[in-house]
């Protein structure tokens, strides 16, 4: 008997939930449309763009250091010297 009573209470509760959802939907339809969610961003758009730009610069620098030191067999810190870049540009333009 108690199992039957608990099933009956669950069924009543389900019906109540369905009825409340229907009432909410009707109230929203009568009030002029759908509710819009407000989106709160944890990281603002300008900060995201700044992070992407900085990470791009860091990746380019690290890539140049890796390429010059490992592939070119030079010193990694030499990429910060102007003479290195003029030499690289001269090699590219003359060939």
TrEMBL record:
It comes from the Bacteria. The chain crosses the membrane at residues 45-71. The keyword Cytoplasm does not apply. Keywords: Membrane, Transmembrane, Transmembrane helix. InterPro entries: RNApol_su_b/EpuA. Residues 1-10 have a biased composition (Polar residues). The keyword Transmembrane helix applies. Residues 1-34 are annotated as: Disordered. Residues 11-27 have a biased composition (Basic and acidic residues). This is DNA-directed RNA polymerase subunit beta. It comes from Robertmurraya siralis.
């Amino acid at each position: 008997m108690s199992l039957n009573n608990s099933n009956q209470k669950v069924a009543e509760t389900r019906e109540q939930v369905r009825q409340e959802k229907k009432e909410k939907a009707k109230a929203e339809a009568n009030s002029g449309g759908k509710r819009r969610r407000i989106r709160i961003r944890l990281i603002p758009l300008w900060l995201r763009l700044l992070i992407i730009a900085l990470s791009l610069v860091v990746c380019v620098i690290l890539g140049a250091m890796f390429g010059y030191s490992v592939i070119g067999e030079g010193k990694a810190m030499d990429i910060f010297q102007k003479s290195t870049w003029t030499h690289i540009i001269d090699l590219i333009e003359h060939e």
